[in-house]
Design brief:
alpha+beta
């Protein structure tokens, strides 16, 4: 019984001791970090069979980000995202990351610059016209502006159907 009383008496002192007189940071006083911005610098019109640089300039608060955790270029032909390729971007200078790529035939392509830097993930998308594509034969690009595609999308659809059946 005495142990119980000692324990009960000690709790307020422990709680008081854990309190710190430092100011508690609120949303009003907390600094919100500047967004990481990614500017895709690859030209929109490219030639077939020539090596091109897929390039992205990464900045935060108008300053170059040379310490991005990852810059990956995802390239696919319009309507064929599941057949796309991922290429690792390498830092050249002043926040510019590049990867070399050669388009082997005319077409409309899309590219994401998946960028993870300073706790943020940014993925701008850009349309690329390679050579002189026959626009009547170009497949419509139905991919979203997110990373979700292919079988992953199907899994989400199945989850929605399961939820509907549960109601």
């Amino acid at each position: 019984m005495k142990k119980w009383l000692y324990s009960a008496a000690a709790v307020p002192f422990l709680l008081f001791g854990c309190g710190d007189e430092k100011e508690v940071e609120t949303l009003d006083t907390a600094e919100v970090p500047e967004f990481v911005e990614v500017d895709i610098q690859t030209a929109e019109e490219l030639n077939v069979g020539e090596s091109v640089q897929l390039a992205a300039h990464v900045t935060q608060n108008a300053e170059a980000v040379d310490d991005a955790k990852e810059v990956m270029f995802e390239v696919w032909e319009s309507g064929l995202r599941d057949d796309g390729e991922m290429l690792e971007g390498k830092l050249t200078e002043d926040g510019v990351y590049i990867a070399e790529y050669t388009f082997d035939h005319d077409g409309v392509y899309y590219m994401f610059a998946h960028t993870t830097a300073r706790g943020m993930h940014v993925m701008p998308k850009k349309k690329l016209i390679v050579g002189n594509p026959d626009m009547s034969k170009v497949l419509e690009d139905t991919s979203s502006d997110s990373m979700e595609h292919g079988s992953e999308h199907g899994e989400h659809e199945d989850e929605k159907k399961d939820e509907e059946h549960d109601h």
